[in-house]
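Researcher: Please predict.
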Amino acid sequence: EYTEDVYAGIEYESGSEKNKKLADFLRNELGADFFEDAGLGVKPMSAFGSKRLVRKAIQYAIDHDRESVTLVHKGNIMKFTEGAFRKWGYEVAAEEFGAELLDGGPWMHFKNPKTGKQIIVKDSIADIMFQLMLLRPAEYSVLATMNLNGDYLSDAIAAEVGGVGIAPGANMSDHVAVFEATHGTAPKHAGKNVVNPGSLLFSGVDMLQHIGWQEAADLITKAYEKTIAQKVVTYDFARQMDGANEVKTSEFADAIIRNM
């Protein structure tokens, strides 16, 4: 979820007038206790933002025939923000997708209306999820989480399949979608013709899927996979492979085209 959590940017520098006003209110009105020189930040989590995110995650699982959606949170510590995210997520599953309790809960399940298969909606504590992504990644399909958790998790999980060089990015709203490479502009690599174009290519694949051009999306994905299987790769993959044929960005693109 990109609009809330600690990434909302509601922060007040230690020693500033706004910091003092907020600190006085928290201490005097709410009985909070913290060091005098503390910087302060606000972590907003709304039902609207949380449900919007989980709704899209569940719909993604339906559209892409995924087995589960996992709500990742630290609700055991932050009960009224991340704990609320978990609660609102389960509410969306029940109220909008007809999910029912699985073996008494809290996990839920419902039938995918497109395939008839069961989709499980479950949750996991964020720090435990890092361990599970290393030990049992096959048990998870779609993760729905907040800004900070998602930032950490997405990069860590990308490392399991080659790094952010091939991780796609998509910003989805109800009406507009923007697709971009997760690694940003990477100016230090600009013009060198060496980097892996996978992140941008797979962002394009996500865009093609979003607009319904599945055949075109599959063409790129299968050609990319075939090229990797041939061990024709850019430097980032070459250093992780035995017997790799390291090529430039443009040569890698040519190889993908030949494999279409």
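Model: The mean pLDDT is 96.
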